[in-house]
Amino acid sequence: MQYAKVIAVLAVLTAAACNTVEGAGEDVRAAGGAIDKSAEENNTYGKY
To answer: What is the 3-state secondary structure of 9-26?
Structure first.
């Protein structure tokens, strides 16, 4: 019975970690998009 509790806790922690990593990936993607947009708006090489 004790093993079942440990496995249940590990399953919950694993699921929470997956959601956290997924959220971090979305944040990094959004930051990359913002940097890309800013770089395109401030590009001075193609404006001559």
So the answer is: HHHHHHHHHHHHHHHHHH
Q: How many angstroms separate the CA atoms of 46 and 5, rounded?
A: 62
Is this prediction's pTM over 0.70? no
12-39 confidence digits (pLDDT tens):
877 777 777 778 888 889 999 999 999 8
Tokens of 10: 């590990």
Instruction: Tell which residue, 26, 7, 29, has the closest CA to residue 18.
Output: 26
**Residue 22, C-beta contacts closer than 8 angstroms, at least 6 positions apart:** none
- Which residue type does 3 have? Y
CA 37 to chain CA centroid, Å, is: 19
